[in-house]
């Protein structure tokens, strides 16, 4: 297998990003310190951020983000789950022979570290080299996990691949929620994997809008000026960041798609 499986070249301006580290290392570190949310509107690992109707930033307008990790003293990271690209995953990963007769598309997970991929997996058992997000949903950056998902998936197992992710520094996400950029809602696997991407944001914004108007805004959490290191550094990656030692890369220009998935 080629040593360089992928190298994605995407550029999307984003004020909601933070400088690089390892996404899975960050997930593990923040998961170890996560606190139980104190209100239904509080961000937490395994919750959805739903862009408000007034969020004008085109990078995040009408997006739904699944929080992979959250700590109000260190920051947060998540992936956009409703922006498929026009690129078949088989084209992005030509060395993965198991993908050649499949139709899955690559998703744009966010503007940070778009040269690397993260997998989101729904599995009846905890995959090796994967980090739990909520329920039976896990995340991984391992090509071994992808191969396992392709080889042994049951009817209830699902997976998707995302290029890049979004990150926030300490207090940043809380401030954005307080000013009305995001609504917070519980995540469920059916929404993430079964709802067509073009329908996800409209359904969620309509479902929860009445409930949000009845809720008080969460308390803003201020925690200094330090920045959470969440993006991957291409020159200093360690195999231990992805337990298999093999990461997912791609080498093409991508654009998001509004077309329904096959």
Describe the overall structure.
By secondary structure, this protein is α+β, with helices and mostly antiparallel strands. The chain has a single domain, classed as VC0467-like, CATH 3.40.1740. The protein is 21% helix and 24% strand. It has 6 helices and 10 strands, in the order αββββαββββαβαβαα. It has helices at 23-33, 89-92, 143-152, 172-178, 189-194, 197-214; strands at residues 47-51, 64-71, 75-80, 84-88, 105-108, 112-122, 131-134, 137-140, 158-168, 182-186. Strands 1, 2, 3, 4, 5, 6, 7, 8, 9 and 10 form a 10-stranded mixed β-sheet that branches. The two termini are 28 Å apart.
Helix content range: 10-25%
The CATH homologous superfamily is called: VC0467-like
Structural class: alpha+beta
Number of strands: 10
Distance between the termini: 28 Å
Q: How does the major sheet shape up?
A: 10 strands, mixed
Number of domains: 1
- The CATH architecture can be given as 3-Layer(aba) Sandwich
Radius of gyration: 17 Å
CATH top level assignment: Alpha Beta
For this structure, the CATH topology is VC0467-like
Shape: globular
What sequence of helices (H) and strands (E) makes up the elements? HEEEEHEEEEHEHEHH
């Amino acid at each position: 297998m080629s040593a360089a499986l992928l190298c994605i070249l995407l550029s999307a301006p984003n004020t909601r990003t933070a400088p690089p580290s390892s996404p899975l290392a960050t997930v593990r570190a923040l998961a170890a310190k996560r606190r139980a949310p104190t209100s239904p509107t509080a961000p937490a690992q395994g919750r959805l951020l739903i862009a408000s109707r007034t969020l004008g930033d085109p990078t995040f307008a009408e997006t739904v983000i699944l929080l992979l990790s959250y700590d109000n003293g260190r920051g947060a990271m998540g992936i956009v789950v409703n922006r498929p690209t026009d690129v078949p995953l088989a084209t992005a990963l030509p060395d993965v022979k198991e993908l050649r007769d499949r139709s899955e598309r690559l998703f744009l997970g966010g503007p940070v570290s778009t040269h690397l991929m993260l997998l989101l997996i729904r599995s009846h058992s905890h995959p090796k080299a994967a980090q739990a997000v909520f329920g039976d949903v896990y995340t991984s950056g391992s090509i071994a996990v992808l191969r396992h998902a392709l080889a042994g998936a049951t009817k209830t197992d699902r997976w998707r691949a995302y290029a890049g992710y979004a990150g926030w520094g300490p207090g940043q996400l809380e401030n954005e929620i307080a000013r009305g950029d995001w609504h917070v809602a519980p995540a469920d696997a059916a929404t993430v994997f079964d709802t067509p991407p073009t329908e996800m944001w409209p359904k969620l914004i309509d479902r929860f809008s009445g409930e949000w108007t009845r809720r008080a805004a969460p308390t803003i959490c201020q925690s200094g000026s330090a920045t959470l290191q969440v993006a991957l550094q291409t020159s200093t990656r360690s195999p231990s960041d992805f337990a298999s030692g093999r990461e997912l890369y791609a080498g093409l220009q991508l654009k998001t798609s509004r077309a329904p998935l096959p």
